[in-house]
Every structure is written in structure tokens, then in C-alpha cells.
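Hi support team,

I'm opening this ticket because the web form for multi-chain structure prediction keeps timing out on my end. I have pasted the exact lines I submitted so you can reproduce it. The total is 232 residues across two entries, so I didn't expect it to be a heavy job. Is there a limit I'm missing, or should I split the entries? Thanks in advance, R.K.
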Amino acid sequence: AQKVTQAQTEISVVEKEDVTLDCVYETRDTTYYLFWYKQPPSGELVFLIRRNSFDEQNEISGRYSWNFQKSTSSFNFTITASQVVDSAVYFCAVPPWMDSSYKLIFGSGTRLLVRP
Amino acid sequence: DTGVSQDPRHKITKRGQNVTFRCDPISEHNRLYWYRQTLGQGPEFLTYFQNEAQLEKSRLLSDRFSAERPKGSFSTLEIQRTEQGDSAMYLCASSLDGGASYNEQFFGPGTRLTVL
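Hello R.K., no limit was hit. The queue was backed up. Here is the completed structure from your submission:
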């Protein structure tokens, strides 16, 4: 089965540290989308970013940045100067290859704990 | 503007009982998804609606599960003869039809089901 691998189960950092969450995905499609979601303790998944595989430029949004490398099938997420409010589980997701339902396959998530 | 809503937020039931969950998507979204999330895992796709048509069902969706989306608005997910293995968070998501594009999915707060 197609996989999205988030090898880091849990990461703990001290506030203001930078942290990178890894995501490695499988796909046979030549063009595809990639997503990151955040799931805070309240439980609701919050959309963070959607990237098209055509665009390999890194993206920055405030303290968040994403590094997409098609050659290694990785889509890593960095939080700069982490804050306690960043504590959550973060999921990387991709659509299944040759899919027509627009569903997503999620990784198992990385739990980030930011300590004061 | 309201997001995706789900009702109830929590449901405790005894094995063998039937349960029904409701999802109200974002009003202009014509794609609707159900996912299931168990502890420590990412969401897993269950089923997908495009307007009122149920276009795909996962193998995870046994014949005890049924979903509807009458009139292409809200959706219901029913589980008959619940089993303890059905205990999970049931998530609903909706997205705008982007043609062949993957628009981001917006998730509701989920319904946590506990089967005793």
C-alpha cells in the first residue's frame, strides 16, 4: 500500500528552538499535491499548506517553512522560534496515485511538544 | 462563516447498538469525506461524496457501515451492531470542487465513539 512516512513519532524542544518535522512519501504520479495538517490537543485538524509538485521552491509563511525535494520524495516542515502554542500532532498527507476521489493518505503524525 | 460541524462530539454505546453521526460541511463545498482516526494514527479514509453521490468506499467500510448525503448537503454515517473495534474518532471533511485539482480539505471537530 502507498505510504507516507513520518519517522519521528515525538519531538520535544524548548521554546524558541527551531524544529524540523520530516515527511517521506510514495507516489507514482508525475504531478501531485502535498499537504500538512496540525492537530492541536482540541482534536480538530487544521490545514497548514498545500503544495503542487510542479513548484519546488521552498515556501515560508511566518515562522513556518516547507522544504520540498521531489528527488528524495520528501516534504519537510520547519518551525522557527517554536512557541508553546505550536504543541500539537502534525500530519503530512498525499493523495493516492491515480486516484479519482480526492481523498488523502496521512502519515502517522509527529507529536511536537514545545516546553516553556 | 462557519466551518465543518459534527454532531455529537462524543458517543458512548454498548456493543451491538446502532449509532448515527451527522456532518454539516461548509455550505458551498460539494465534496465531503469521512475518515476514521484511532489513537496514535493519522486519519484513514472511509468514504467520499461528490454532491449527493457516494463515489467511493474504503475496504475499511464493512457492510455494517452506511453513509448518506441526501440533497448534497449534510451527511450521516451509521454504524450498525457496533463492535469494540469501532471505537475511534470519526472525522468529516469537506472541500470545494477544484476540477482535477486537489483543494484543501477542511475538517470538523470529529465524533469520538466509545463502544463498551
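A quick check on our side: Chain B has no helices and eleven strands. Let us know if the file doesn't open in your viewer.
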